[in-house]
Amino acid sequence: RFTALPDIRRNDEIGQLSDSFRRMVRKLEENDRARKAFISDVSHDLQSPLLNIKGYAELLGKAELPDGQRKEYSAIIRDEALRLSDLARQLLLLTSLDQITDLPEFEPMNLSVQLREVIRKYRWAFESKGISISMELDDASCPGDRELLEKVWENLLSNAVKYTPDGGEVAVRLEAAPESVILIVEDNGPGIAPDDRERVFDRFFRADEARSREGGTGLGLSIVKEVVTLHGGTVRAEEGPNGGARFTLTLPCS
Ligand code: ADP
């Protein structure tokens, strides 16, 4: 840490120079802290699935197991491997977002068509939990990055499936305004506590222990926020119907 910086308090140019130097150093220290926290979170999130895979693989290798148990252990190994592969994919995407310095070239995107395709892709997941999904999609065309926006819809919809209990309801609305579009994804699941509604967009934040058992990386919404910001838009979490979650996303669309 740069704690030994001389404390120069002057109103002249040297004072200004010293102030801006201090601000710069503080920023560097913040970045350094964030980088260390990120590495420690990643290491932690890599370790627990790897240990589970190792442990269950050893059990499978050693004992004469009844069929049921063998299937159960294999399923755990498969789920943990999937968790690792999700984590790797999301980390790669976040790293590539961190490296963007210039605004990417955006192409005109028909958002309602793209959303409909993603919803179609996830229909099986909704059906397997008996969750009904309703959609009201205005026709809207906005400049955007196809792959990144697809990730945004996927992350919001997969969370809606993951956190809404069996038999629940999810609604997706796309509203075209004069110079923007508003996307709302809401569900009637457990919702997000008021204190967590901003923090859910932080990297690795997961609301409470009970829900962490659902599997997940805590990176999906941070990707949503970074992609939306890159497009000049905003996203917020609120209370949805019957205390569920509502995500409202606005994208400029001139
Ligand atoms: P993940 O789902 O992998 O944990 P996310 O970044 O997508 O990570 O979400 C962060 C946290 O926000 C989740 O762990 C969960 O606590 C909360 N969350 C996200 N979507 C919902 C939702 N639809 N309903 C309730 N909680 C949600």
TrEMBL record:
Reactions the enzyme catalyzes: ATP + protein L-histidine = ADP + protein N-phospho-L-histidine
Broad enzyme group: transferase
EC code(s) of this entry: 2.7.13.3
Summary of the function given for this chain in its UniProt record: Member of the two-component regulatory system HssS/HssR involved in intracellular heme homeostasis and tempering of staphylococcal virulence. HssS functions as a heme sensor histidine kinase which is autophosphorylated at a histidine residue and transfers its phosphate group to an aspartate residue of HssR. HssR/HssS activates the expression of hrtAB, an efflux pump, in response to extracellular heme, hemin, hemoglobin or blood.
Keyword annotations of the record: ATP-binding, Cell membrane, Kinase, Membrane, Nucleotide-binding, Phosphoprotein, Transferase, Transmembrane, Transmembrane helix, Two-component regulatory system, Virulence
Histidine kinase domain mapped to chain residues: 41-254
Superkingdom to which the source organism belongs: Bacteria
Topological type in the membrane: Multi-pass membrane protein
Sequence ranges assigned to domain HAMP in this UniProt record: 1-33
Entry GO MF terms: kinase activity
Compartmental location: Cell membrane
Protein name: Heme sensor protein HssS
Keyword Glycoprotein: no
